[in-house]
Design brief:
The chain has helices at residues 11-24, 37-51, 66-86. By secondary structure, it is mainly alpha-helical.
């Protein structure tokens, strides 16, 4: 059975949750404040892309890396959408 994530869910959502958990456990030290929200987003996104292993295979995704799994899901949604329009 293939479980499709919500349209707004990405592999980085799990990484963001992981950052929060690690910070809560004291295993990661994040700056307590940022000058702007944009600065916070940029710093956190930069840290995530450097930390999160997007090539790691996940058992919940049939052993596929997150990026490949998402690509397959997007392609399936596009095909389904095209079939709906054609019908």
């Amino acid at each position: 059975m293939l479980v499709l994530p919500s349209p707004t869910h990405t592999a980085l959502d799990n990484a963001r949750r992981g950052v929060v958990q690690l910070a809560d456990q004291g295993r990661v030290r994040l700056p307590p404040t940022f000058a702007t929200r944009a600065e916070a987003r940029l710093k956190i996104a930069t840290w995530i892309t450097g930390f999160y292993n997007s090539r790691r295979r996940h058992s919940a995704a049939d052993g596929l890396p997150p990026e490949e799994f998402e690509r397959i899901i997007i392609e399936a949604r596009e095909r389904h959408s095209q079939e709906d329009r054609a019908a």
